[in-house]
Design brief:
heterodimer, A: 114 residues, mainly beta, seven-stranded mixed β-sheet, 0% helix, 56% strand, B: 113 residues, 11 strands, globular
Chain lengths: 114, 113
């Protein structure tokens, strides 16, 4: 019954490293999203994609980029990780008009940048 | 454009009721509600659409006041399993026939025995 998976639950990286977070969904959804979650700040949208190779900036895109080469896969890239990017990263997908338009979230990746 | 949730946190005894509010500064087409239990991913509870009916899910229901641009989530006769953080999501950037969501900061709910 797996719907949205993320490549790692926990990740520790060093400042300046390039970091890849991968997300895969098996529901054939056209829309995919990357959020970061920090205590007291809720879920903030980093980037989203509404189709293969299409991407749009969310509220906090600085320091991040994304890639969507296949419909089921959406990658978040930290070009040069910094300590202020230590956070929980959540991927989500959904399809408008399908059921209740609910977003399905992955289990999250807790990234620590040292 | 992040919606404002209140209260930030609430502690209940099992069986008590609670209301969580979500307000937006802009006109809304929809409001989504999610619950996240500790260490888990957020899970969809319900969506309320402009002009739609009040929704319900077990003993959890919600209303949507379009004029006031706000939604309320009602938890009645709370159970221990209701503990978690509740998020509302409102219309953000438009995407084709829908919207990306702006989520509130969340309301932490703890139900005690």
């Amino acid at each position: 019954d797996v719907k949205v998976t993320q490549s790692s639950r926990y990740l520790v990286k060093r400042t300046g490293e390039k970091v890849f977070l991968e997300c895969v969904q098996d529901m054939d959804h056209e829309n995919m999203f990357w959020y970061r979650q920090d205590p007291g700040l809720g879920l903030r949208l980093i980037y989203f994609s509404y189709d293969v190779k299409m991407k749009e900036k969310g509220d906090i895109p600085e320091g991040y980029s994304v890639s969507r080469e296949k419909k089921e896969r959406f990658s978040l890239i930290l070009e040069s990780a910094s300590t202020n990017q230590t956070s929980m990263y959540l991927c989500a997908s959904y399809s408008f008009g399908a059921g209740d338009n609910e977003q399905f979230f992955g289990p999250g990746t807790r990234l620590t940048v040292l | 454009q992040q919606p404002v949730q209140s209260p930030q946190a609430v502690i209940l005894r099992e069986g008590e009721d609670a209301v969580i509010n979500c307000s937006s500064s802009k006109a809304l087409y929809s409001v989504h509600w999610y619950r996240q239990k500790h260490g888990e991913a957020p899970v969809f509870l319900m969506i309320l659409l402009k002009g739609g009916e009040q929704k319900g899910h077990e003993k959890i229901s919600a209303s949507f006041n379009e004029k006031k641009q706000q939604s309320s989530l009602y938890l009645t006769a709370s159970q221990l399993s209701y503990s978690g953080t509740y998020f509302c999501g409102t219309d953000g950037v438009k995407i084709s026939s829908g919207y990306a969501l702006n989520f509130g900061k969340g309301t932490s709910l703890l139900v005690t025995p």
